[in-house]
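Lay summary. Proteins are chains of building blocks that fold into shapes, and those shapes determine what they do. In this project we predict the shape from the chain. Here is one chain we studied, written as its sequence of building blocks.
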Amino acid sequence: MKYKSKVDWWIHATFALMPIINVWLVAEFVLNQSVVSAICAVIFLGLNALLIFPIWFNTHYILADDELIVKCGLGKGTRIPYAKITSVKETREPWSAAALSMDRIEIKFTVDVVYISPQNKQDFLEQLEQKMNAKKGE
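And here is the predicted shape, written in a compact code that computers can read:
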């Protein structure tokens, strides 16, 4: 089952601001022939295309048969076998995470910790618990 990340309003505002700045810089270049504006527009466009949009549109969590898959951006993601999960708790920790909301879940596993923010958190937690219990029963 796939769960998209919950997205806080301030994330939407921040990510939406990037294209607006880019349009402003392109308009500045067209109106004033400013080379600096052109360079800044190219940099902002690159940041949008390579960093911001992939995170915004590709942050999700998959409860597969044997593992939790955490995807954020263009990377291959983190695969966490259910048997390796040591604790799961709700949190509002601000640490860097594969989460677009401060309404998070902390998942500790044998080698690390990951913070996620599924849209339907209670359903996600129930499904995760079922998957973990099924793996313990094997």
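What the prediction tells us: Strands lie at 2-4, 60-63, 67-71, 78-81, 85-91, 104-109, 112-116.
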